Amino acid sequence: MSVVLGINAVFHDPAAALVADGEIVAAAEEERFTRRKHGKPPVPFATWELPENAARWCLRRAGLGPGDLDAVAYSYDPALAPQPGADITADAWDGLRTLYAARAPRFLRSVLPGLDPAIVRFVPHHIAHAASTALAAPFPDSAVLVCDGRGEACSHWAGRSRRGELEQLAAQPLPDSLGLFYEEATEHLGFRRSSDEYKVMALAAYGEPAWIGDFRRLVYPTGDGGFRVEPVDWGSFAKRVDQGAEWTAEHANLAASVQLRLEEVLIELAGWLHKRTGEPVLTMAGGVALNCVANSRIYREGPFERVWVQPAAGDAGTALGAALAVAHSLGDACAPMGTAALGRSWTDDELEAWLVSAAIGHRRPADVAAAAAEQLAANGVVAWFQGRSEYGPRALGRRSLLAHPGHKANLERLNDIKGREQFRPVAPMVLAGRAGEIFSGGPLPSPYMLFTHHVSRAWRDRIPAVTHVDGSARVQTVDPRHEPLTARLLERFEQLTGLPVVVNTSLNTAGRPMADDPRDALECFGSAPVDALALGPFLIHRAGLTR
Asked: Of 36, 84, 457, 516, whose CB neighbour count within 10 A is largest?
């Protein structure tokens, strides 16, 4: 039996995770503590910040200290990185990144006094991604597909997992990278790379894949489990979007072309992997696996019976994957991930102390879920702060903004509240037992909001706020056995409105990480036109913000 702390502090999204005796005890991104989204203020070295706050919290959650650890798993192996002078990447910081990783044991000792640097183990970046999904999935065996921007020297890993043993079948060396290809498109369209790729996915629904023929020549599978990405002259398709400029139909068409080609290549890679493994289950991770439109096409059109994506599929998830990989190597049987709610929480007394200290008027209704549902039924927007926070980029009913889905104007309203682009969709949260009559074309249940589904025509006019322009929705299903409070809210909302769905988007404003602690929630509530805040069992109304 062992205790392993996982660390990601390589490219972006620094995070920590703790696995004890094969059980996932805690996991959190550093941005939830520092309030620096993706760990990326506008200075390059910050992409390598240590998740010192997240690591200390993980240990406190378990009641342990650094001296109690059997291993620290770091999700990057500097020995696999290219040597100085190797021209395989455009990243000018490669040498410094590798040097930083090599010195991670000493850096970690400085922020975790009492840690023995000798217990730090380097886990290859894509093995950490693979372990984060294969060892956390509710399946003992699976084919495994990892695709992201880059690791030490590759951008993709394909293989199988059998009882936790990972076998590599293919890997794509840099500079060819589907993740970097998508990042370049993201930047050309005026968004922040390694951060805003989901905006390209949203914008794509407004366009037509006018240049798909060009991208099929530029990005293509090689038939051996890999692919090639030729240099792209982005300006030949659409003018670069500068800060403050407007998006045009040309930009939407470019987004649609890039998105479609990504989907096509991933489907072919998944098909090749299925032929090699014969496995009925595909598990996926890597930043590209956060592309829920592509995930759904793999599910619908690919050869696998089941597709499972780890909720923190991006680089933050490599902290968990590294910890699971090392725990498995130490002989622990790793238990499946039962929930994404692996972050911080507060007791009712602690939450009330925040409200009293801030002199905020509040009440404690008999059932906060029912009271919040009544606010939503009256077309109020409710900030919903409950239990342990989510691990990963999706708000899953722990740190959410909720609204009525039956009013189309609520999409614009929520985007205005959050200060984000109006082409961005919001998601439906639905009771798992009701999802099948409303949504199709994606796996159900879908608790982690990592697939898109078709909204049935009979429901599109009933829930227009969550129906994207192409008739799709990124669904989150709620199981009353695991999320009884949120399930009660949905049940009461349906009693009041006839709709078993509410709008769910993250509790934050543009450019800020998701709210994580009570101060974050109160700041967001105080600065945005939100009607009510359900903070644990307490309800605060806009009119009662101050006594």
From this structure: 516
pLDDT tens-digit map of 378-404: 999 999 999 999 999 999 999 999 999
- Residue 498 phi, psi dihedral angles, 5° rounding: 80, 5
Separation between Cα atoms, residue 379 and residue 404, nearest integer Å:
6
Could you say which of 12, 125, 129, 453 is catalytic?
Answer: 12
Give the end of a domain, one of 272, 298, 329.
329
My answer on whether 173 and 115 are in the same domain is: no
How far apart are the C-alpha atoms of 216 and 265, rounded to whole Å?
9
Task: Report the distance separating Cα 479 and Cα 163, nearest Å.
Answer: 27
pLDDT, one tens digit per residue, over 233-278 is 999 999 999 877 889 999 999 999 999 999 999 999 999 999 999 9
Strands 382-385 and 532-535: parallel
Return all residues near 13 (Cβ < 8 A) that are at least 6 apart: 29, 31, 38, 39, 314, 315, 316
Per-position b or e across 507-536, b if 16+ CB within 10 A of its CB: bbbeebbbbbbbebbbebbeebebbbbbbb
Would 291 be classed as within a structural domain?
Answer: yes
Query: Are residues 88 and 146 part of one domain?
Result: no
pTM for the structure as a whole: 0.95
Same domain, 50 and 154: no
Task: Name every residue whose Cβ is closer than 8 Å to that of residue 416 and which is 6 or more positions away in sequence.
Answer: none
Q: Quick check: is 12 catalytic?
A: yes
Are 148 and 100 in a shared domain? no
> HSE (CB half, 13 Å, CA atoms) of 388?
18
Terminal C-alpha separation, the chain: 52
Residue 229 buriedness (CB in 10 A; 0-12 / 13-18 / 19+): buried
Query: 516 lies in which domain range?
Result: 348-544
Q: How many domains does the chain have?
A: 3
Same domain, 77 and 122: yes
3-state helix, strand, coil in the chain (%, to 5): 40, 20, 40
